[in-house]
Amino acid sequence: MKRFKELREGPRIPRKKGQPAGSDKHSDLYTDENPKGTIHGLKFATVEDAEKSVKKIENSGKSHAHKIQAAIAMEQRARVMKKKGPADVYRRYIEKMKKITKERNK
After folding, report:
1. pLDDT in tens, 56-88
2. What are the percentages of helix, strand and coil residues in the chain, rounded to 5?
3. Residue 66 contacts by C-beta under 8 Å, 6 or more apart in sequence?
4. Phi, psi of 53, deg, nearest 5
């Protein structure tokens, strides 16, 4: 029976925090994997920045799912940087969007 190290090909690539074992996906909070769909100018430094960014997300013309995804990424970035106020602004928007999602799914 071969040991795991012998089966592995190439150097070990560490998993990111929260990533399931064996995942071949990569997810980085600060890497833009699809710049074509990006909503530019989103910030989380202050509560005012977050509120302006939420308005940008709402008026972006992107799909419902894309708007939620952008808000979640910004909320996570704010939380990582210990910006509770701005993160809460994004969380309120996400909760509002969840209600819309539930209505659409009925």
Report:
1. 999 999 999 999 999 999 999 999 999 999 999
2. 55, 0, 45
3. 37, 39, 60
4. -65, -40
